[in-house]
MFS transporter
Amino acid sequence: MPRFFARHAATLFFPMALILYDFAAYLSTDLIQPGIINVVRDFNADVSLAPAAVSLYLAGGMALQWLLGPLSDRIGRRPVLITGALIFTLACAATMFTTSMTQFLIARAIQGTSICFIATVGYVTVQEAFGQTKGIKLMAIITSIVLIAPIIGPLSGAALMHFVHWKVLFAIIAVMGFISFVGLLLAMPETVKRGAVPFSAKSVFRDFRNVFCNRLFLFGAATISLSYIPMMSWVAVSPVILIDAGGLTTSQFAWTQVPVFGAVIVANAIVAR
């Protein structure tokens, strides 16, 4: 039995750790969504800064994309993704000690870098470690689980805020991040031979130049990016519209997210068929 678990540790635990990391990363936005107005009020900040919590998270999510791919090709997937999980965990933990809106937003931007690590390194490692067929199935599972975060997050956040301060929500996410960090540390396989490709800034820029000269890539990237604008805009501004201006309670607000993101889940299921 011990040999079985040792032999299949990557198969059993690496995907689970990555799923938890991915879910926690998205939950860091969705769980606090009903309480973002409370955050602004606690820091005596202008309510117009509430959407910035999402905007800076997304800014963090694109800040390191250009670097992590080439870096993981040179030094390996493991150290890069594990470092990302640790950074995310520490950023969530640091949020509990913020004393101003500026500090909170900086922490949110750092939390957003988790998207870079997951999308650039985590998903690639799944494909490399499990092959095309199993990799596609695992990616489908990961996507399905992540899709429920916008529904579970606001409902759970609203329920928890009846009993705990909003900073405790980030403590919960930090615990999830730490568990995923330990899981990756113990079970993540290395799929790239370290040092096989020497790092060269010139080659990195050449690769990016070639990619950005590819019209098919540009069209696909633009289409996907533009399709997310309405949904992310809603995530950013809906608390201001419905809670601050509309007078909804956090619980009422959380339930308004169910039909919105329920429709997204249904649409994805239809497209998948």
